[in-house]
Structure formats: structure tokens, C-alpha cells
Amino acid sequence: MKRLALVSAIFATLTTAVAHAEEQVVNLYTSRHYQSDEVLYENFTKTTGIKVNRIEGKDDALIERIRNEGEHSPADVLLTSDASRLGKASSLGLLAPLDSKVLEERIPANLRTSDWFAFSKRARIIVYNQKNIDPAMVQNYEDLADPKLKGKVCTRSGSHPYNLSLGASLIKRLGADATEAWAKGVVANFARKPKGGDTDQIRAVAAGECGVAIANSYYFARLMNSDKPEDQEVISKVGIVWPNQANVGTHVNISGGGLVKTAPHAAAAKAFLEYLSTDEAQQYFANGNNEWPAVPSVKVSNPALDKMGEFKADPLPVAELADGVAEAQKMYDRAGYQ
Ligand code: FE
User: Fold this and answer.
1) DSSP 3-state assignment of 112?
2) Which domains, ranges and CATH numbers included, belong to the chain?
3) What is the mean pLDDT of residues 205-221?
4) Are 96 and 260 within 8 A, CB to CB?
5) Ligand 1 centroid from CA 169, angstroms
6) 305 with 292: CB under 8 angstroms?
7) Mean of the pLDDT values across residues 246-250?
8) CA of 156 to the centre of ligand 1 (A)
9) Distance 215 CA to ligand 1 centre (A)
10) Rounded to the nearest whole angstrom, what is the distance from the C-alpha of residue 189 to the centroid of ligand 1?
């Protein structure tokens, strides 16, 4: 009954949006580029009559673009990944607060702020070489700074949002001094200078160039779901750890979006953001990038994610991650984590 009521509530909102839309269109600035998203947009248009115009770009470039376009920006919705990027868009004043009963009900409180919302979740995991590293040594992010791992640790750049958000979560939990000491310890353990993306770190662990690395869960899942023999070879040589299971839980970040402050089609944009929280859209949105839905009742069927199993997630609110990023960057700079 409850679910039926919710579905009607969503459709009532969508209908209202259509009636008030200046034009039946929503301009979406998105860093997503997945085939499965096509179906998502088509279904939205079928349900509401609102056309989706997509402008694709890299995460930070989209934020810059909206900023440069100023008050005449055609952007209605910004979709990007990582709490730190959405936090940046928000602190630049690019997003508008969105009062939505639907999103409040569907998206857990720790996965939304007043002006942006998570639509999928990813975890930052530890990947280790099965031959050279005992997983008991790397059960927590803190372990990556242990001198026992000297010459074994690989990560992408410390300035990358994924590592900055992780740093922000450590600051909240361990405090500033302990986190800076941690960053110094990680740098002292590097097998090589940070380079490449998360997938490059996983490959380097498989090749034995690194003993351990940190990577977002969907990069690992993507390799697992790949039918390329070289990817399967990589997977056969590495194992994963869900960090900090005995304490706070694994650091979780998000993909999400919000209403652009200057949106020419604000009602349509709201309808679109609410649509992203429906069961159907959640499936496409999460599965398209091997992530988990933000709406807790929605389950995806994804062979890699099924195999990776369940884990305890750090419940730290995404707003707090975004808040701590500037401090994490300063700390990493001092620690030489570039
Ligand atoms: Fe990524």
C-alpha cells in the first residue's frame, strides 16, 4: 500500500511539473556516459513528456562551464560524482535548495543535503596482491600508513576528489593530527609516485608493481564483469578488503546531482531529479556504473556486486565529507601526497 501511495505521489508531482514547465525540456549537464542511461532518459520522457537534452563533459569542466555561463546558463540539472564535487558546486552558489517530499522520503538523510542528492553509492576499497600481501595486514585505511607496507602502496593522486573525500572522512573520525600523520605514512610507503586512475592501480597490484592500492568499488566490479581475458587475469591475481569493518565501516561516496540555481526549466528539473529516485531509474542509474542504488529498498542484479557481497558502510553524512575536503587538501600538501 505504502509503495503504491508513493508511486502516485511521484506521478502527481511529475504531472504538476509538466503543467508548469515553460517548455517540455530539461537541460542536463552530466559527467555520466553510460549506454544504460539512454533507457532511463527515454522512460522519463515517455512518462512526463519532458525531453532530456544532454550536455556531457568531465565533472570539473561541467562545474566550470555553469560558472562561466553565469545567469544565462541553459543548465537545469547538474549530475556528477563525488560529494566533494557536488559540495564545490554548492559552495560556488551554482545549486538551488530543492524542497522535495519525494526525495526526502526516498533518499536517506545522510545521502543528501539541502541542494544536492545522491542517486548511487560507491565504496573506496583496498585491493591487494594475493601472492605478496596477507589481507590481515590491510583491514583498515589506517594500515596503509604502517611501516610494514614500505614500498608497497599505490594510489592515484592525493588531489583527486576520491582521495580528498577519503581524507575528509579520516579527519572527521581520527582528527586532524592523526590524519596528517596517516598521509605522511602513506607517502612514505609508496611503491611509486601517484599516477593514473584507480583501474591503473588495480592493474599495477596484479602485476606486482604494488602490493596494495585503494580504488573505488565500481572499477573493480567493471573488471570483474569484463569478458576480456586480460581483465580476468587481473582479477585472478588480486583480492579485496572492505576497510574498517570492525569499526566505523568502509568509506562510501556517491554520484548525484542537484537543481542549478539559474535553471530555465526548474519545474521540469525537479521532476527529473525526483524521477531518478524511482525504483526503475535507480536500477539503471546504479547498474550503469556498477554502483549501488541510493534508495535502500532498491536492489540491483549485478554479477560482480553480488559476488563482492555485503559490507558495513561508514554512515558519515555526505555534507560532512564535502566540508572536510579543503582541509584534507592542505594536509595532503603538507604531507607531500600529490
Ligand atoms: Fe570514477
Assistant:
1) strand
2) 2-121+254-302 (3.40.190.10), 122-251+312-335 (3.40.190.10)
3) 98
4) yes
5) 18
6) yes
7) 98
8) 11
9) 9
10) 24
